[in-house]
Amino acid sequence: MKKTVLITLLSAISLMAQGAYMGFAIEGSQTFRSHQEQQAFAGTTEQKDFEQNAYGLKILIGGEAEGNLRTNLTFGMTQYEGDLFPKDFSDEDQHKDNGFIYSFGFEMMKAFPVSAVFMPTIVGGFDFGFMDLEGYVQDNANYTAWKLGVGMLNRMNMIELETQIFLRHRAWGDYNYEQALTQNITVQENTINLSIGLNFHY
Known about the structure:
By secondary structure, this protein is mainly β. The protein has one domain: Beta Barrel (Porin). It has one helix at 2-15, and strands at 20-31, 34-39, 45-50, 53-65, 69-80, 100-111, 118-132, 140-156, 159-172, 175-176, 184-201. It starts with a helix and ends with a strand.
């Protein structure tokens, strides 16, 4: 893992050498085909589908390279409207996570200039994140995720409007209730996301 992160950072730094920018974006998401799975001590399994809305803020540092390639290092904060990890698997009103995610990620983007102002893009990347838990053996829930989507850049001198629509898959780990008969909760989450932001070139 450490080697992968180091290679990612070195690659990003080398691609940023030719042009740099900073930016921020607001994001909204809606889950689809997502589920929570509970495995009881006796080996029985229960699965429940769910839908969640979320919204958040992303801050990025990026760079441009030849061939209209870009890389971004990102930091994100996301708030869910409900819980991913309820204390009681059958009761969604038992709030035992704070629904607030901190994340760190890496993105690669390819732009296709159609004019001096408009550039359609394709984007992919991965990110890691965590949020606090209560009522579980673990204090934090962690995930790994990948994303893939398309977007548009609208360049106006040193300021750029960026929009993206993309799919993200998050895989959360196994988490255990604080009780004698341990039960595991696993979450697999798929979301469709819309992002709108500004980049500032320097």
